[in-house]
Amino acid sequence: MHAHQASAAAPAINDAQIAHIAYTAGVIDVTAAKQALQKSHNKAVRAFAEEMARDHAAVNDQALALVKKLGVTPQDNPTSQSLASNAAAEQTKLAALSGAAYDKAYAANEVAYHKAVNAALSGTLIPSAQNAELKSLLETGLKLFQSHQMHAEHLAQSLK
């Protein structure tokens, strides 16, 4: 019973907000990847960043096509806002670094970021999604982002 009570107490999140959060999370990682491609000279880091930019942009294109089809307008919300402001702070921190220090910090941040996004997807966004197509897109995204997390962990290990 307790789990049900806890979820009932949490503020309900709607599909328009879920779509916004998922999209925002993708944009953040594409932005981080673009910064990495400007700053890093490490082959492995650059390959990882290219994969992030490509995969997250692709999922976001699917998300935009889906919300258009469903006639849903993604709705800004406190979760999206905190994701965005935390990411901006992280970008500023990373911008001040260079060389190996940048590479390590980027990889570590990508591990932490994918962990957080995957936890949000599996714990909140997927269970809360009402629309079956949105839920399915999020589930596909989660599988992809779990593989990103593993890739990020390997990258971070290799840079230690």
TrEMBL record:
UniProt xrefs under InterPro entries: DUF4142, Ferritin-like
Domain DUF4142 per the UniProt entry, residue ranges: 14-155
Signal peptide feature range: none
Protein name per its UniProtKB record: DUF4142 domain-containing protein
